[in-house]
Amino acid sequence: MTLAHPGTLSGRLVTLEPLAHDHHDGLVDAVNDGEMWRLWYTGVPTPDGMRAEIDRRLGLQDEGSMLPFTARRTDTGRVIGMTTYMNIDAATPRVEIGSTWNAASSHGTGTNPESKLLLLRHAFEVWDCPAVEFRTDFHNHQSREAIARLGAKQDGVLRAQMRRGGYVRDTVVFSITQFEWPGVRIALEHRVARHLDTPEGAPRLG
């Protein structure tokens, strides 16, 4: 049993397209925006490693454990990052939303909340998942705070769960259940709407 790739998920701020090799140059430009790979507790690919990362994600898609996307700004078409459904359990069904990174200039623009809204909506309303999971490094406080702002609740910490970059990381696990989804959806829709309604040049909140 497998979950089919949903194809392109279109929002008003961000559009998620199935990852393809043609996205390489745009993704390199995006990852250079803020040099996110320099944060030691993240798994963001380097510019030189982008082609291998695309191959890795597409390989996991072929194996049925990942459905990867490239994120674009809807207004300009500019590539701003990557995200995925991963660790797919098609029998339950249950998925994790992860392996996400976004260009620094896109932070606080509403594209990430809408990206999560699109992915969560498909998982809960099309696949009928009873829960959707998020995971991050214990040291990645920015990611932990962003996941909590989505409305996810922390399930716990998996101690010494993964070896990465010369150390063994503790992994913080969050989830949103189907019961919680209606409230989470309304909150995310309001977050996205604030960015659509904000005049150009005014301060924007994530």
From TrEMBL:
InterPro entries: Acyl_CoA_acyltransferase, GNAT_dom. GO terms for molecular function: acyltransferase activity, transferring groups other than amino-acyl groups. Coiled coil: none annotated. It holds the Pfam family Acetyltransf_3. It comes from the Bacteria. Residues 14-153 form the N-acetyltransferase domain. PANTHER family: BLL6696 PROTEIN, N-ACETYLTRANSFERASE DOMAIN-CONTAINING PROTEIN. This is GNAT family N-acetyltransferase. It comes from Leucobacter ruminantium. The lineage of its organism: Bacteria, Bacillati, Actinomycetota, Actinomycetes, Micrococcales.
